[in-house]
Amino acid sequence: MTIDRLGWSPFFRDSFELFKRDGAYPARISRAYYNSFTIAGENGEENAVLTGKLRAECEANGDYPVTGDWAALTREQNTHAALVHGILPRRTKLSRKSPGKGFAEQVICANMDTVIIVGAFDLEWNPRRVERYLTLAWNSGAEPLVVLNKRDVRGDWEALLAETECAATGVNVLAVSAETGDGLDALERVIAPGKTAVFIGSSGGGKTTLLNRLSGGAAMATGEVHTKTSQGRHTTSTREMTILPNGGIVIDTPGLREIELWADESALGNSFADIVEIARGCRFSDCSHTNEPGCAVMAALEDGTVKRGHYENYIKQRREIRYLERLSDTNLMREDKEKWKKIGKLQREIEKRGKEGR
Length: 358
Ligand SMILES: Nc1nc2c(ncn2[C@@H]2O[C@H](COP(=O)(O)OP(=O)(O)O)[C@@H](O)[C@H]2O)c(=O)[nH]1
Ligand SMILES: [Mg+2]
Ligand SMILES: [Zn+2]
What we know:
Elements lengths: L9 H7 L8 E9 L2 E6 L2 E7 L1 H10 L8 E6 L6 E6 L5 E5 L7 E6 L3 E7 L6 H14 L2 E7 L7 H11 L5 E3 L8 H7 L5 E5 L6 H8 L24 E5 L5 E4 L15 H4 L1 H6 L17 H7 L5 H20 L2 H28 L1
Parallel strand pairs: 3-5, 8-9, 8-11, 9-10, 11-13
Antiparallel strand pairs: 1-2, 1-4, 1-12, 2-3, 4-5, 6-7, 12-13
Helix pairs in contact: 3-10
């Protein structure tokens, strides 16, 4: 297998130069579980360990390699074990706030092109939850997509789809059934060859079932090593990467029990684009949209342009993000954002150069 199939691109090739040393080779982290890593590369999948130096660095900044990361490795001379020396700069990353009281970012996975929010048309259906995942997705730098699964269980799924589309402004929403296969062609087209998608969403929505269905029954691992339960069913214990028969790459995640936002306010400009647009008409530029005179958002709420649940979720998420920003060293977050902007710019330049060079 060539590493292009794993999503290698000119962006990573150029940053790999920084880690070049004798015998160094690139591979992708296909599974990260605490301190245990599986990598996928030219020779398939194998286990890898971090060098002492890298582990110390990770410990110091709380930033460990995650599924989807590209790594620079060498072989240990005697044992031939795969050693991770460094992690290449991430092109995108999906993060949430670490569960608990403290202020820390938890990166869920990295270098994905699409964040696929999987919901379901069952009793769990709730557009408010989709809105929370959307804010995380927008903050990741990747393109969000909403997939509503189990359309076989609800006769009124078209109405629920329309309502979800309303909540997810500017984002594609697909209605599918992993059970019957309805609507899966459209989903397959989104996960293009060499592109990486991550499935996120509450447990039980059908992420793993969808993945199994897309991969034609038995999930094809990124290499030889693959775990299955005794029933032969693939269950998600951790974040892991799978290559679909069409060449698309999927990272499946276990359901996140708690989705604490990790985002800055600009992400709300995407996940609540409609409200943010209306808010330009407010009399005060720092309007809180809760009690000010001349508030365009409250007027839109009054006349039904904006749905109450959508509005309330916006206010709630904004409060959470402001709290997060107060907790944080705001500058730190901004610096981080700047860094990612620079990396994005660098990447576009590299890709442009790559095209011109050929
Ligand atoms: N009726 C129906 N059930 C489904 C569908 N997709 C998944 N399920 C069921 O939903 C349950 C949870 O699925 P699972 O893939 O484990 O969800 P995950 O936690 O998101 O990975 C399982 O019992 C599946 O059989 C679907 O399209 N229709
Ligand atoms: Mg699962
Ligand atoms: Zn207002």
